[in-house]
UniProtKB/TrEMBL annotation:
One of its GO terms (biological process) is DNA repair. This is PD-(D/E)XK nuclease family protein. It comes from the Bacteria. Residues 8-303 form the PD-(D/E)XK endonuclease-like domain. Pfam families: PDDEXK_1 (PF12705). Gene3D superfamilies: 3.90.320.10. InterPro entries: PDDEXK-like_dom_sf, PDDEXK_AddAB-type.
């Protein structure tokens, strides 16, 4: 039986809710229940599907890991960044994920948290040539963008900054709602007590980018008592090689607060449906009518009438082999 939890909100959770309520409940609640073999085969497959990553997500995740470690090394040792070394590392990591995915369907079925599965391979059998070319171009452009970024060359190299926190996930409370965020780089300029937050973007610009930075600013204000005039917020669009600074004002704060309030209220209402028996829950959530969202949805294997039988049978066949 589902028990009410303390309301928690994040921008990614909100975005997914706006895309599709069914996808949201699968991703943030129901898929987790399928971790155990006592649950229905649909939920067990949903648990695996939750861990699929498409090539753009995988690229972004690996790029962020490398950036984090390179900045740490740069600050600790002063070692100059090597563009060639980072590009090679990124290519090697992507190739490793590709090989593990291509020949590791049964391992992914067994433990999806440690064995990768690439969305395009799971649903399409392989990566097409155009996608491979796009990713190769992204490696070149994003790594160059990082090396030449304003954050590296004008903030880290020239100013007296220290990294404020090591933990990736941070949170603060707003009217009883726990707001969770994951900021890439939080620093303090020790010469003038200015706080800065940088978000590295390996994809295109989005209409939510400024909302994300406003969440960060609110976090700095609530957690460190930072004044709005002492906060620097920037997005580094790596592919374009552009740094964009944002200034947040009280109107942005009020706008964000009302979004969080309305969105977390809707989430709490929808959570009530989790009290239904497992086999009824999914039918109580709205499906999107936006085909583009479905095309890229991890859960289409259990949601789409055309795909369900094949994917369930493949999974069952694999389970049969082991028992
Ligand atoms: S496939 Fe479409 S309708 Fe189904 S959960 Fe995903 S986004 Fe929603």
């Amino acid at each position: 039986m589902y028990k009410n939890q303390q309301p928690s909100w994040s921008l990614s959770k909100h975005r997914m809710l706006m895309e599709c309520e069914l996808k949201w409940v699968l991703n943030y609640y129901v898929a987790k229940w399928g971790e155990t073999n006592s649950k229905s085969i649909t939920l067990q497959l949903a648990w695996r599907l939750k861990h699929l990553k498409n090539m753009y997500m995988l690229f972004g995740e690996l790029m962020h890991q490398i950036i984090e470690s390179e900045i740490k090394t740069l600050l600790e040792t002063g070692e100059v960044l090597s563009e060639a070394k980072i590009k090679k590392l990124l290519r090697d990591m992507l190739n490793r994920n590709y090989s593990q995915t291509k020949y590791g369907l049964n391992l992914w079925y067994k433990e999806p948290r440690v064995n990768p599965m690439i969305f395009e391979i799971y649903y399409g059998g392989n990566l097409d040539k155009t996608l491979i070319q796009i990713i190769a171009k992204k490696i070149d452009e994003c790594v160059s963008g990082f090396i030449q970024s304003k954050t590296i060359n004008e903030v880290i190299a020239k100013r007296n900054v220290k990294i404020v926190e090591a933990e990736k996930y941070k949170s603060f409370y707003l009217d009883g709602v726990r707001v969770v965020l994951s900021a890439d780089l939080v620093y303090l300029d020790q010469n003038n007590d200015i706080y800065g937050i940088v978000d590295w973007k390996s994809g295109k610009r989005s209409k939510d980018d400024s909302l994300q930075l406003t969440t960060y600013a609110l976090y700095l204000e609530k957690t460190y008592g930072a004044d709005l005039s002492d906060i620097e917020l920037s997005n580094e669009y790596l592919e374009e090689g552009i740094n964009k600074n944002y200034t947040v004002d009280t109107y942005d704060f009020e706008n964000l607060k009302s979004i969080i309030q309305a969105s977390s209220k809707r989430m709490t209402e929808l959570e009530e449906n989790l009290r239904y028996p497992d086999d009824k829950i999914l039918s109580t959530f709205q499906k999107t009518e936006n085909e583009r969202v479905c095309e890229w949805c991890n859960f289409k294997a259990i949601c789409s009438d055309e795909l369900r039988n094949t994917h369930m049978n493949n999974f069952l066949k694999d389970k049969g082999r082991k028992h």
